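## Example record

The block below lists the input lines for one assembly entry, exactly as stored, with component labels intact.
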Amino acid sequence: QVQLVQSGAEVKKPGASVKVSCKASGYTFSSYGIGWVRQAPGQGLEWMGYISGYNGNTNYAQKYQGRLTLTTDTSTSTAYMELWSLRFDDTAVYYCAREGIVAASYGDPWGQGTLVTVSS
Amino acid sequence: DIQMTQSPSSLSASVGDRVTITCRASQPISNYLNWYQQKPGRAPRLLIYAASSFQSGVPSRFSGSGSGTDFTLTISSLQPEDFATYYCQQSYRTPLTFGGGTKVEI
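Predicted structure tokens for the full assembly:
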């Protein structure tokens, strides 16, 4: 079955960076994209960006421009989300989701989520 | 950015009730509207895409409608497993944006 499995929880200090992985299985990785969404504790969902598994094109929310890097490794069907210059308010659960081939459309399925805690 | 406004933010209902959640976009988005269900501690699950298309495996008691700026998600007969938070999302233009969520409680 189609599945996305994310890497484990992380604790980081302010100013550091974090890299979360999302390994896909059960489908042809290059036929879809991957979107990233985060959810701060007790809050709603926030879209961060998208990367195409087909051509590697990316689309970032303006809020994260310059601080977010999305990449893929098609040889291992894995997508990565790297967020730099972490702040306390980056503490959140980060989700990946399978998306459309060249543009974000709707996420299905989603990974289980990765909790990133920013603490001094 | 396109703003998505959901109402109500929470509601109390009983098993068997008909529940309707509304979502309004700040500008027309055609039918580029998706609905998700999220239970505590779990990832969101896609219910409806393109305003009214069912995702595989979603019970038929869920339905979506609307176009332009106004959309609804209806649960025809609420079941115990439906108590959760529901989010709408527009995919008309990036950045994709979500509504604030509707928590369905007993």
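Chain A has a mean pLDDT of 96. The radius of gyration of chain A is 13 Å.
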